[in-house]
């Protein structure tokens, strides 16, 4: 835990040096958890667990993320405490009876979340299937996305309007960290369950307004806005917010429908916009300081009720910061 003050070190030692809090840290190493998850696993009351969590948050070992009336907790991802927690948990035997029991209960909680997510999907599957039947298979859309991205890898990927979390799953092996934002608690629960099932611990979802996200500027190498803009009153404002999140030379990827006249999507499925043409999208992208580079169109079934999906890629026009490590790589 090099580079921290003695006060910080002592705070971390005090926070972790208690049986329940050590168990909480071990559970959070498996992914973010709610207070209810922890009470179910540890068999302790909500006020007691909340007090332990407050001490862990105050010490800097754990981060708290509110989501409406709920809050989710995960291990800190920056600061000197990261190395400390890793070393601490590495010394903890997986054969320890208490640790093993907690993992069994964690698996049961995960299974409950998975079943609830499947039930939610089943309740809405008819609506989603109706819309999916109008355009090309999602596998083709995802292949186009990967084509546009090439072999790039990313420190941080942000998915705005993450929905089911599918984009985070698709790009999980290319990113050191993935963050999905959505306003819907139901969709966040669904996405969180899918990420948990896939053990994608480096990906997380958060509640957030696409027009005013809770993230700092210049944090993302890649921002994705996948099948979201047609639900919005002000798509250009969402694009401007996406641009704010991008690092210099970062990439924005937008996937949505080309113009169409299927009014029932507006009436029955809350689509505010009936698609976007290429010129309009390009004007929005350049208007916020992005440079469009490529786009791919995927035509639907060909009948009058089919939808064409378009994927647009654009770059932040600011030059990337050339760090000493990057200069060494370029010289090599």
Automatic annotation (TrEMBL):
Give the HTH arsR-type domain ranges.
1-100
Q: Which InterPro entries does the UniProt entry name for this protein?
A: ArsR-like_HTH, HTH_ArsR_DNA-bd_dom, Methyltransf_11, SAM-dependent_MTases_sf, WH-like_DNA-bd_sf, WH_DNA-bd_sf
Q: Which GO terms describe its molecular function?
A: DNA-binding transcription factor activity; S-adenosylmethionine-dependent methyltransferase activity
Entry-linked PROSITE patterns: HTH_ARSR_2 (PS50987)
Highest taxon, organism lineage? Bacteria
* Gene3D superfamilies reported for this sequence: Vaccinia Virus protein VP39, Winged helix-like DNA-binding domain superfamily/Winged helix DNA-binding domain
Q: What protein name is recorded for this chain? A: Transcriptional regulator, ArsR family
Which organism is the protein's source?
Answer: Lutibaculum baratangense AMV1
Classification of source organism: Bacteria, Pseudomonadati, Pseudomonadota, Alphaproteobacteria, Hyphomicrobiales
């Amino acid at each position: 835990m090099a580079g921290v003050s003695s006060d910080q070190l002592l705070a971390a030692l005090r926070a972790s040096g208690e049986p329940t809090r050590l168990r909480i840290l071990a559970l959070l190493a498996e992914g973010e958890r709610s207070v209810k998850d922890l009470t179910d696993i540890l068999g302790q009351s909500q006020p007691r667990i909340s007090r332990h969590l407050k001490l862990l948050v105050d010490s800097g070992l754990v981060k708290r993320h509110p989501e409406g009336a709920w809050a989710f907790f995960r291990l800190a991802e920056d600061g000197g405490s990261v190395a400390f927690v890793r070393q601490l948990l590495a010394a903890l035997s997986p054969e320890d009876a208490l640790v093993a029991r907690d993992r069994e209960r964690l698996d049961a909680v995960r299974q409950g979340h998975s079943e609830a997510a499947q039930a939610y999907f089943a309740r809405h599957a008819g609506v989603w299937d109706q819309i999916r039947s109008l355009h090309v298979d999602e596998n083709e859309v995802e292949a186009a996305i990967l084509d546009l991205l090439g072999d790039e890898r990313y420190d941080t990927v942000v998915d705005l309007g993450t929905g089911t979390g599918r984009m985070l799953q698709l790009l999980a092996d290319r990113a050191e960290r993935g963050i999905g934002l959505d306003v819907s608690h139901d969709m966040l629960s669904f996405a969180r369950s899918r990420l948990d099932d896939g053990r994608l611990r480096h990906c997380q979802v958060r509640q957030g307004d696409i027009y005013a996200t809770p993230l700092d500027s210049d944090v993302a190498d890649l921002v994705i806005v996948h099948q979201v803009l047609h639900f919005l009153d002000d798509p250009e404002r969402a694009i401007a917010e996406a641009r704010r999140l991008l690092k210099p030379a970062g990439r924005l990827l937008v996937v949505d429908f080309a113009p169409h006249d299927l009014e029932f999507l507006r009436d029955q499925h809350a689509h505010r916009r009936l698609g976007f043409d290429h010129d309009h999208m390009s004007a929005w992208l350049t208007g916020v300081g992005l440079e469009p580079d490529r786009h791919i169109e995927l035509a639907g079934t060909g009948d009058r009720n089919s939808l064409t999906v378009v994927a647009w890629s654009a770059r932040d026009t600011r030059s990337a910061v050339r760090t000493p490590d990057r200069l060494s790589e370029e010289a090599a």
